[in-house]
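Risk register update: the risk of archive-format incompatibility is retired. Evidence:
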Amino acid sequence: MANQHSQTTGSSATTLIDDTIRAFDQGQAASPQEGMSLITDWFSSIKNNHIAGDVMEPLSQLREELQTGAPNAQRLQQLFNQLADQTEQLSARGEGDLPSRLTTLSTALRNFAGQFSTTV
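Archived output:
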């Protein structure tokens, strides 16, 4: 499954958003490997986008946490909520159907973060 995410590298933001939402909705992003794959795709997608650049720091921190091999549930919850907040802020700047997709992604991130509250 990890290879499926890497195939989205360079694809449109809409496709990456939809792929990420699907991964969270289907529980596929629950493994650190899936998370790393999605983070890599997001880094590739937003590296030259100054508007979306705000999410680079929490994505970097999330990648570091996943690379530890034993991620801290409380820290993951914090990072996913931070990503949800920034994604929600980005939705206000989008055009077309991008704001609704970003709002859906923000909700998916918050829902996923909520799963960690039972493990903390």
